[in-house]
């Protein structure tokens, strides 16, 4: 486990904890608009907790959250601000090198693969890539529900010269938790997503924003596919702490409740199982805070 890299955790609940106002539909973008210093503090707290990679707060900087008009008028400026805040926090770390991952979200909504528009996606991804580019070390296409979304990210960053990671969100209903074949929220198989990743040029395939109970099977599947294809790709996990079913809930309809049972100790036990299954990049998504990341580092790295 000594080679494990530690990511940060979920931005939104930490913003709330530190006093930022969050409301839908803007969600975490509202903190960039009204309280960017709190965004910087969240990055700093994750770094202090042990994160080796922090992610830009650009997830909600898409028309789905901030609206088409604001995206056209203010999107580029807000995206640059998100990149700059993360870069400054990473560069201020004195005990180790901290990388910045540029968050490239699902453009047309989380958990909503049916809304994907291939003819329009690059119009928005290009704005994110152009304005985050000066600040990031790695591209992170995250919470993607279908392989076509990942392919769009690959195309968008191809000319940047920077490595990219792809992270899919998984079906996490009762059937999946009970041992069903691991699938994306689009119902595409993790096996097929891993096969795509192996030939895509991605440096890492991750799984995020799903319940921790479904992550190990996905890691095992990806490990098997990569071995069969002789592909040298890292595998990562950053699960969420959402309660109940999330697959049918639109991302900007409200605030999901988080689980009371998923404390830092419980989450670190899941993380150990992911590492044992082959994951070498581990962090947290929604509801996983700095305390969880601190415990992860102690548990996985000593």
UniProtKB/TrEMBL annotation:
Q: Which UniProt key words apply to this protein?
A: Metal-binding, Methyltransferase, Plasmid, Transferase, Zinc
Q: Name one Pfam family in it.
A: S-methyl_trans
Source domain of life is Bacteria
Record: residues binding Zn(2+): 209, 285-286
This protein's cofactor list reads: Zn(2+)
Q: Does the keyword Metal-binding apply?
A: yes
Q: Which residues form the Hcy-binding domain?
A: 1-300
Q: Which PANTHER family match?
A: SLR1189 PROTEIN
Q: What is this protein called?
A: Homocysteine S-methyltransferase
């Amino acid at each position: 486990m000594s080679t494990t890299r530690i990511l940060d955790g979920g931005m939104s609940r930490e913003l709330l904890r530190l006093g930022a106002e969050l409301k839908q539909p803007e969600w975490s973008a509202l903190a960039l608009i009204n309280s960017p210093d709190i965004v910087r503090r969240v990055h700093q707290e994750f770094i202090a907790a042990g994160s080796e990679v922090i992610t830009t707060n650009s997830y909600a900087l898409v028309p789905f959250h901030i609206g088409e008009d604001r995206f056209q008028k203010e999107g580029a400026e807000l995206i640059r601000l998100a990149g700059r805040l993360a870069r400054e926090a990473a560069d201020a770390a004195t005990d180790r090198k901290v990388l910045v991952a540029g968050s490239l979200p699902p453009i047309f909504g989380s958990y909503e693969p049916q809304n994907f528009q291939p003819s329009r996606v690059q119009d928005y991804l290009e704005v994110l890539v152009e304005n985050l580019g000066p600040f990031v070390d790695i591209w992170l296409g995250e919470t993607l529900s279908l392989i076509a979304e990942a392919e769009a990210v690959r195309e968008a960053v191809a000319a940047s010269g920077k490595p990219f990671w792809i992270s899919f969100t998984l079906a996490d209903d009762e059937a999946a938790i009970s041992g069903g074949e691991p699938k994306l929220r689009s119902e595409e198989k993790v096996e097929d997503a891993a096969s795509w990743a192996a030939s895509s040029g991605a440096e890492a395939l991750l799984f995020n924003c799903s319940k921790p109970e479904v992550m190990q099977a996905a890691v095992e599947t990806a490990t098997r596919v990569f071995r069969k294809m002789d592909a040298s790709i890292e595998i990562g996990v950053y699960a969420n702490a959402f309660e109940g079913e999330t697959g049918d809930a639109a991302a900007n309809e409200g605030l999901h409740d988080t689980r009371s049972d998923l404390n830092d100790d419980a989450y670190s036990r899941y993380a150990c199982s992911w590492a044992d299954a082959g994951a070498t990049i581990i962090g947290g998504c929604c509801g996983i805070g700095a305390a969880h990341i601190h415990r992860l580092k102690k548990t996985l790295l000593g």
